[in-house]
Amino acid sequence: MPALLDDVRFAFQPLFNLHTGGVVAVEALARPHDGSVQDLLQAAFRAGYLANTDVALACRAVRHAADHGLGVPLHVNLLAMTIADRPELVAPLYAVLRETGRDPSDLVVEVGTPYSRAPRRLLVKGLRRLREDGFRLGLDGVGEGDSPLSLLTEVRPDVVKLDREVVVALPADPARFALVQALQHLCEHTGSLVVAEGVETEAQLAALRRLGVRLAQGNLLAAAQRRPRVDATIAAVLSEVSDPEATTKTMTGPVRRGAGPRVTDFLHPATTLPDSATSEEVLEVLGSRPTVTGVVLVDAEDRPSWTVDRNRFLLAVTGPFGHALHAKREAARLADRPKLIGAESSALELLDVVAHAHRERTNDDLVVVDADDRCLGVVRVADVVRGIAELKVEQAAALNPLTRLPGTDSFAREVDRRVLGGELFAVGWLDVDGFKRVNDSVGFAAGDDLIRAIGRALTEGAGSHPGVHVGHVGGDDFLVVAGLDEIVPFSAAVLDAPFDAEGHAVTLSLATLICAAGSVVSYREVSRLLAPLKEHAKSLRGTSWVLGRPGSDHVDVLRGGPHLAVG
């Protein structure tokens, strides 16, 4: 097998943060001279040297990467069977890290399929051992093959990589779209980041952004190359896909997105040096990496002690006599105390930190730290400002211009959140009886006034009930989602209020669907089940309210007179 390994070369493909457009890591991909890496591993398996060959490939990947001085985390691949094998087989990986001067925390070990052939207990034990030794972990091939979701919850990996077959199907397959939504929701609870691999088209990229997936790799963004492009950006590609809705019209599933971005959504890998580093060492790093905006000086526990801003530092050391004065002395003399922010903080909290900073430092990078104050990376203020601005524009575009209430997409996300969370909740569909006759008799301006009045009543009612969300999905159609303890008092208050158009009294119809955990699977299904309930409510005299449940034909009439006579 060693002779076969001599013919293996490596290409490196960047992983991008879709919020910032920057490279956050690089994956090493083995490229045998003949055949594929799978062919090589199969030959090793037949010869009885699978684990040894697998580890040897990872070691060669680390050595090849060391030739390029990446400055970002490196992803290497190991099979699940290798990790579940004897611990001493992985020892060469530790040796090559010492040889190249890399720390285990610089490596993300991507666990590859098949998982079913690795004894579960031994696999989990091996993964925990790697984590205890400082490695970061990733599960590869999730969504296809035999990757068990229960392993995700047990191991809580740093990253979960979507199989490329899932990514390919996203723009046109609602089921795959829903799968990624559910995986995103699960990863929020495990603290894992979803990475999409194999992104080849703008439609796939648009679908991923719409889902809130923030890390991706693929030929659309950057092809794998012998020399890694750690300074690459994808700003041009992102701007071409600035309207996710435009290229995902075929999607039928709702989209789930959090209440707002976190600082980790904008994370860049930090360029670090020991806090004892000299100015000359910092200058060497900045000179070799023109895209680095600063250096974080860390202590032995990887906790930030100082930050060196690129512009201020270069101004000091490149001026007259600057090199002679500072080169051999500690860089901390030209550094600042770091501006720290916790990994769980929101982007708005970051801007609050910036607002209270000294004017000279408002554009400095902020250092993101974990619960033990260890450096996780840096965030650039410009990225956060741009991201929040885009979010606000998106939110404004999603509001109905007449009532300023959220539209269909926002409401769908809220319903989907409750479905995925297994909550017991109710969805209501409210509209005006005979609204067309209102417009035809007193004019569309009076009709608009009526819609605004109903919108205000819904908004004010929701203000008294924190668990109630209301939306205006067009025309005279309004939606309400609430918990069971709030839907009745909220709805009763709205229906009790008198509404009129130019003095002409109008009545309302409300259909409510009670959704127990597991009784519905999507916003689309809720919409379909509400339709016959709405028709029932419209058939009643006066202001009406009916209530139904998924899987039952029984309808409770809470308000409204008997059925109107026909004929």
TrEMBL record:
Residues of the EAL domain: 1-238
Top-level taxon of origin: Bacteria
Gene3D superfamilies: 3.30.70.270, EAL domain
Domain GGDEF: 423-560
Annotated InterPro entries: CBS_dom_sf, Cyclic-di-GMP_PDE-like, EAL_dom, EAL_sf, GGDEF_dom, Nucleotide_cyclase, Rev_trsase/Diguanyl_cyclase
Name used for this protein in its record: GGDEF domain-containing protein
Organism: Saccharothrix yanglingensis
